[in-house]
Design goal:
Number of domains: 2
Strand content: under 5%
Strand order of the largest sheet: 1-2
Distance between the termini: 57 Å
Number of helices: 12
Helix content: 55-70%
Order of helices and strands: HEHHEEHHHHHHHHEH
Amino acid sequence: MPTLDEIEAGRPKSVDLPRPTAWPMVMAFGIALLFAGLVTNYAVSAVGAALLLSGAVGWFREVLPHEREETVPVARLVEFPTTPRESVSRIDVEGGPHRARLPLEIHPVSAGVKGGLAGSVVMAALAVLYGVVRQGSVWYPINLLAAGASARIAALPLEGLRAFHADALLLGTAIHLLTSLLVGLLYGVMLPMFPRRPILLGGVIAPMLWTGLLHASLQIVNPTLEAHIDWPWFVVTQVGFGVAAGVVVTRSAYVRTLQFESFAVRAGIEAPGVKPPHDEEPR
């Protein structure tokens, strides 16, 4: 076996490496702003295009017509690591799997459904309260929600939005329930990943992120709602939904994931020696 000095004598004293540059990061940031402007403002896309162009030019100048390089000295080798062990330790796989995907336990789907329904009730109550206090009509928030999917309702004047419309009631209720159920299912999946502060995540952080996303894109998605929305009240309704849904989901019982089971068990297929038949009790 060659000694450390013999290996060191055959190694080069320095190597030529590409010179570090920040232009790729500038170009990537420009691409991100370019696409972010599609849902926010054209000025953001303009800034992104300028950064993209300048980053591309700067990056190309680093490699054309000649690649910029710098000489880096080669560090001397340290002593080879040694160990007093005379044998290799093996992983004991007979006692169970040694790797796991977290979380090991999750909330059932029913918890997300119940959380979404509870949040929808609280959110609807706060929205109706806003309609009575600020607009003098319980139908105003419902009509405003339905206006995003109905051109006829979106064309109504302010007084029309305060009046009762049967189709707006049905459409707004359907949108509200569907959205609440989807977000409730999302809470059921997301909250076990943050076990220490689930209510903080579900009741404050998630509603604030959701509100910021809507504030940036609502002018394109639903111009009628964006023109009439009261953002402080909107934040209150979102926080109310998040707290109610978070409390219901976190108080539900956990179920273990089937990540360590075979595909036959996870798919519900009876396999001899893996899963007992329905007429037999597991031993």
